[in-house]
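Encode chain A's predicted structure.
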Amino acid sequence: MHAQFLESTESLRLSIYPSDLIVRGSFNIKTDNPLKEYFVNIDGVIRIGDNSIKLKKKDQPRAKTRIEVNKGRLNLGGKTPKKGPKYTYNYDYKRIESVSEGKLDNPVDIDEWSVNRLSIEDKDITISIYDNNTGQLLEEKKYKLKPDSVVGVGNPKLCYTNLAGEDVKVISGKIGDDIDYSKPMKIVVEDIWDRSYKVCSYNVKDLNSMCEMGANTTNEDTLTERQKNIIRNLPKGGFTFISDIIIEIKGKKYHTAPIEIRK
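Encoded structure for chain A:
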């Protein structure tokens, strides 16, 4: 086997998004390691299943390389070589975020992998590289998934109480006609464990106003009476946005997605 074509680190970060969990890693194609030849000038990417992909080099009739993971869905990324300025023999590289499957019009050098569709219970992941023709295991690496680096929060929600006394949370879209406007309306941002994050400020836009679209910025998480009235007075089919939402995570401030409110 050839060492350290895969990252030599013992752990990788598991990133959490509202609808998915993803871990990312790389292949060291800048090395002189013989495995580099299995990953450059690839013009065929053949998916066998969620966790297995074969690679075919441009100058070979069959796929020579197979990459597998033990869980989740494997995806690949890479670079396509592009000639540099005229009269030079150098090459610049243009980054590709992901590599499409099937026959590629432009050969790529595969240098990245990612795995999604993971579970929050997954504590590690193993990636393996095989010679597809012989079945020989060329390299394998098991990575721990760092529990202290899990990141990502869900979309902000508008929270209100309806006339039946029930709490309602809206990410975006149509709201009911049964809102109890005498009760507080708040902006809430939570992660998948229902942990809440501090909302520092936001803006409720009055799109029906003739005065600079009715900007109403508040430096807290609770709507003012004026802001509630913007929502209350929306005509049927009308809409507004709660935008410029800023939250605080571990002392740092971040912008989040806006909330569209429709009647």
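Residues 157-262 form one domain.
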